[in-house]
Specification:
Strand content: 15-25%
CATH class: Alpha Beta
Number of domains: 1
Shape: globular
Radius of gyration: 14 Å
Strand order of the largest sheet: 2-1-3-4-5-6
Largest sheet: 6 strands, parallel
Number of helices: 6
Structural class: alpha/beta
CATH superfamily: Alpha/Beta hydrolase fold, catalytic domain
Distance between the termini: 13 Å
Number of strands: 6
CATH architecture: 3-Layer(aba) Sandwich
CATH topology: Rossmann fold
Order of helices and strands: EHEHHEHEEHEH
Length: about 170
């Protein structure tokens, strides 16, 4: 089964995505969804909505696994809201609860519609875009079936490719 990785917004996330691909890509069929603003240097208004459509067009009706980091988590759940049938399992890391605009958080409610064992959230304890405590509260308010895992880091870096692979393979 194919796995699509939706990275974070900044260009440094391209390096992170490629590291994840190099570590587990062959085993999980990983493909990186590259953001156009990494080439152009500028994100145009409505870029997330356009990326949702591009993602859905690329997957077609094929079931996929999804790994989302930071703003990629929002794009992932926005896509699920349009077609929940495309996802097999989903891993979200670095959910940027402190950066979400009003109404963005509502998109995550779709996670409650996935069967138990299909969603894992990994959040660093002191991520400056959303602490583990705040993300855990958000996920618990959505569903008790969301596996929410804490990692003892104080940044927005998620070097947990083996955890992603283990969850997707299980």
């Amino acid at each position: 089964m194919k796995t699509i990785l939706l990275p974070g917004f900044s260009l440094q996330n391209r390096d992170w995505a490629e590291e994840v691909r190099d570590q587990i890509g062959k085993r999980v069929g990983l493909e990186i969804h590259y953001w156009p603003h990494w080439q152009t240097g500028e994100a145009i208004e409505g870029w997330k909505e356009r990326e949702v459509e591009r993602f859905l067009n690329e997957t077609g009706k094929e079931k996929v696994n999804v790994i989302g980091k930071s703003i990629g988590t929002l794009v992932a759940v926005m896509a699920l809201n349009k077609n929940i049938e495309i996802v097999n399992k989903i891993v979200l890391c670095g959910v940027p609860v402190y950066d979400l605009r009003p109404g963005d958080g509502d998109n995550y409610q779709v996670l409650a519609r996935l069967r138990p064992g299909r969603v894992m959230v990994i959040q660093n304890e002191k991520d400056n875009h959303g602490s583990f405590d705040d993300v855990a509260k958000m996920m618990a308010s959505i569903s008790q079936n969301i596996l929410t895992v804490s990692r003892p880091r104080e940044d927005h870096h998620y070097p947990y490719a083996p955890d992603f692979e283990n969850f997707l393979a299980g």
